[in-house]
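Morning run. Coffee first, then this:
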Amino acid sequence: MAMPALPFVTAFYAALTGFLCVLLAALVIRQRQRSRVSIGDGGDADMSRMSRVFGNFAEYAALAVVLLALLEICGGSRVLVHALGIAFIVARLAHAFGLARTTAVNPGRAAGIVVTLLVILVASIALLLIVARKIFA
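And here it is:
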């Protein structure tokens, strides 16, 4: 049995996701210093919002990267993996900047979550179709 191709496309988007993680963590740290809050949000609305910016990112990042990697390893289209990877990074940036500005619903925040969920949905469907052909053939 041939060894599956290494997921280099996914690795690229995983690296970008890592950079985004560090950026968002730095913003939380900066807000902690400004607010003088070490743990939790200290009742500070800005600290609470920045913590959610990072938390929301973290809630979706791992699943998206794992789905992209599995899709690529299982033979999914490189174009599809690139499209989903780009969409995920742009969506998470839009969501982070939208939420960092205000807790109110805004175009960046709304588009960010919709596109993030679409990336997860499309990757899941594509992966399921590929795997179903292998295990039910």
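The CA atoms of residues 84 and 119 lie 6 Å apart. Good start to the day.
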